[in-house]
Structures are given as structure tokens and as C-alpha cells.
Amino acid sequence: MLYLAATFELNGEKMVAEYNSKGVWRGTKKDWSYEELPATVLDAFKKTKYVDWPVTEVKIVSSPKDPELYRLTIEKNEIEKKNLFFNKEGRLMRDTITW
Predict the structure, then answer these.
(1) How many C-beta atoms lie closer than 10 Å to residue 5's C-beta?
(2) Domain of 21, in residue numbers
(3) Rounded distance between C-alpha atoms, residue 68 and residue 50, angstroms
(4) pTM given for the model
(5) pLDDT single digits (tens) 27-67
(6) Farthest CA pair distance, the chain
(7) How many domains, the chain?
(8) pLDDT (tens digit, 9 = 90+) per residue, 11-37?
(9) What is the CATH number of the domain that holds 43?
(10) Torsion-angle region of residue 26: left (phi > 0), alpha (psi -120 to 50) or beta?
């Protein structure tokens, strides 16, 4: 699917907003750090079966469906990579395979 991305700064933070080819907002991503994650998200991640996988990237993602999720990108090795999406209460909403 074709989409457009707009990079901008808001309150000193770099963000990326994505829109589909008709200009409809698909979502926004903001860089975040593991250390800044809410305790609820950290605790939930530590209880998953992926706790031993290194976290390589953390972002806050927003979309029309989910106003705010914490996306942890984890990698067991070069082939096994996942995105875990937690809400602010620490509930794992979904996980996806990534590359």
C-alpha cells in the first residue's frame, strides 16, 4: 500500500506521521527510550515469553484505532524479530513479525 510520511518536530521531539494515498492519517510514531517506559509496560514485558530477547527500539505509536501504544521491537537473532504493542496499562495488544 502506498503511503506518505511527514517528519516533524513537536515540543522538541521528532515524530513521523503517515498518511494513505488519499491523505487520510494512518498513524504517528515518536522515538522513546526503554528507560522511560511506564512501569506497567515494563512489568508486562518482563512477564512475556520474550523477556530474554533484547529490545532494539522503542516507539510510541498512535493510530485512529489505538490512540497510544508502546511498540517494543525485539530481536532474538537476525531472523527472529517482533514488534510488541502494549497499551499504557501494560496489556499486550498485539505482536507482529518484523524484518
Answers:
(1) 10
(2) 3-97
(3) 22
(4) 0.89
(5) 999 999 999 999 999 999 999 999 999 999 999 999 999 99
(6) 41
(7) 1
(8) 999 999 999 999 999 999 999 999 999
(9) 3.10.450.360
(10) alpha
